[in-house]
Each structure stands twice: as C-alpha cells, then as structure tokens.
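Hi everyone,

Forwarding the result from last night's run.
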Amino acid sequence: MTTTAANLVVREDESPWTADELAEVRRELTEDGDRLRAELREIEQDIAGLVKDSGDGAGDDQADVGSKTFEREYEYSVAQNSRDALRQTERALERIADGTYGVCEACGNPIGKERLQAFPRATLCVVDKAKQERR
C-alpha cells in the first residue's frame, strides 16, 4: 500500500493533509536526519580524540583529569541525544511510509496536523505528551 497524504489521520477540526504539506514534512525530516548523521560523525570523531588524549595524560593534575572527563562525558551525552533524535526522525519517516503517521502511539487518537507540522517527530498527542512529562 502506498501512503498518500489523504490516507493520514487528522483531528476532526483540521483539514486533510495535502500532498505539498506531507512533502514538506518529509523534506524537513530527511534534512534533519542528514544533519543529525553528520553531527554524530563529528561528535564521534571528537570523542575518539578525547579518548586518545586521555591516554596521553601523564603528568596531568587532578583538575586537568577532571576537565577531560567532564568534556568526554558531555560529548557522550550530546551523542546520545543526537542518536535519540535520529531514531525519532527515522521512525517518523517509517510511520509516513506505513500510513500510521499522525496516530498517537499511546491512545490511538490523531496527534494533530498542526502539532506534526511544528514538531514532525511527535509520536504522542498533546494530552499523552503532557501525561508523559508529568511522570
């Protein structure tokens, strides 16, 4: 089955997706994925350099060691955030392809076209996202 814009769910108070709107969301997600992949390659190179430098730390005082450790942990954290965003981006593109884009993964109701146009990686409706954030 080929997913078309008209096949995607919307809230009752929204107009159906148009081919141009869906193409714009796909373009944005694709560009975001490309940017995130490039960002991850750069971060991974930075981490490799930091790991190599940590082995050359003979004579470093505690402050230098602590600073290098903090920088390395920060890069790991940034990399994990980028990986998560990339997974969400790829998942959104998969959901477009399989026709489930726009369906809340928690309750099955429409997420809302306006929400998806503002945040194309959204997988939850506003109500379920608010519940998730309160936990």
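The helical segments are 19-55, 62-98, 113-118, 126-134.

Cheers,
N.
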